[in-house]
Amino acid sequence: MKEKTAETVWKNCLKVIQDNVSPQNFTTWFEPIKALKLHDNILNIQVPSQFFYEWLEEHYIGILKKVIKKELGAEGKIEYSIVMDNGTGKTEKAVMLKVPNINTNLKNSPVNMPIDVSGGAIRNPFIIPGLKKVSVESQLNPNYSFENFVEGDCNRLARSAGFAVAQKPGGTAFNPLLLYGGVGLGKTHLAQAIGIEIKKNFPNKTVLYVQSEKFIAQFIDAIKNNNQNDFVHFYQMIDILIIDDIQYLAGKEKTQDVFFHIFNHLHQLGKQIILTSDRAPVEMQGIEQRLLSRFKWGLSADLQTPGLETRIAILEKKVYNEGIQLPKEVCEYLAYSITSNVRELEGALISLLAQSSLNKKVITLDLAKQMIDKFVKSTAREVSIDYIQKVVCDYFDLNIDLMKSKTRKREVVQARQIAMYFAKSMTKSSLATIGMHCGGKDHATVLHACRTVNNLMDTDKRFKAYIEELDKKISINN
Ligand code: ADP
Ligand code: MG
Prior knowledge:
Elements: H1 6-20, H2 23-30, E1 34-39, E2 42-47, H3 50-59, H4 61-72, E3 77-85, E4 91-98, H5 156-167, E5 177-181, H6 187-201, E6 207-211, H7 212-224, H8 228-236, E7 240-244, H9 253-268, E8 272-277, H10 289-295, E9 299-303, H11 308-322, H12 328-337, H13 342-358, H14 365-375, H15 385-396, H16 400-404, H17 410-426, H18 431-437, H19 443-459, H20 461-474
Helix pairs in contact: 1-4, 5-6, 7-8, 8-9, 11-12, 11-13, 12-14, 13-14, 15-17, 17-19, 18-19, 19-20
Bound molecules: adenosine-5'-diphosphate and magnesium ion (MG).
């Protein structure tokens, strides 16, 4: 039997690989590889770069594992030699990088960090000390994807800037990208969506999401353990750094200082930085001027409270993703009643689902009303003018846009007066505000409407019955 050599073994491997990958991928990823040595069932192959090696490990570990097993048996291993080209065509340095056991399934494991093979490994603050492997888990939540992020007027700029960044990290003017806005408006979701999208588009890039509190805690640990350099180096190796809620850095001068250096390093290398904050840069207190001015290098985009349509769309998406049925009227009721932010909206939906499944009750409008009443009590909830208008319009089968318009058509005028009457008795809104919502009328018109409705109730039994019925429909306590 002919003696096995590195070349013959690799040739046999290539035959199988060629049948299993596309011709283009074969040319790109396998033809440049040279078989160097074979010793003790370890096949040493030469690859042109660190990136190349990582790509193989990420995408072709399965097939490589198979062919090596076939050729060299269960004990077979691959060893990579990374030979970097310094641009003159000459090789600059050859680095041996052992993959100790190709049997470990690296497919689902994090991307390997460019390991500093010359010195000791850099400590990764995300892993327990003692673990040798330097690797980065992106810390991303797969649910926070762009697919699950509903676009609306409230977030259009931020979303599209984020999407642009995800197509070209570090390659747009949006660096850093600072997303800011109130609590529960989707900053974390959007920042993570960018990370997820980048990982999808550029699997070899190292993406890291970290909350500021964690960043601060890691830094304090690093000081304690006297390995601040490791901390800095670790962060300086990231390609896409996402830091959430940077307002927590306020007043933390040392952390700001170290972040400043990390920021400069990454920015200079064209790495992408994504930050979130609960307020605009101009309102950030306790953050050093030199950092603030850097935040302005890129783009600051704000997230605002979603409007009614977006709230409905968000609820519908969640309901769809959960695979549950929710009557349309319930969905609308939630969207009309909870206007503060998306997190509360989601919380209400979740409580409603829990209520219905625990008590084995069907989700009805009544159940939703009861639940919302408990759920949002703390914020001294009241029905909104919008909701009153909607119920009144549904009742009289009118288009809500007509009610909000200036039209003086008889049937519209009466419905509008009724809506004004309920808005006055059920909300704390001023007459002027109510008027503004109902066709841009002034406070005197609203006052007149309330009197008219009261008079009609006294004189017209049928009218009174309408009002009582509507009262029940609008009222949140029954
Ligand atoms: P923030 O970080 O601004 O406080 P989050 O990103 O944590 O807010 O958002 C709160 C919740 O609302 C999350 O569950 C998120 O998925 C959801 N959410 C926010 N905005 C949207 C949106 N536009 N589409 C879908 N879900 C959203
Ligand atoms: Mg957040």
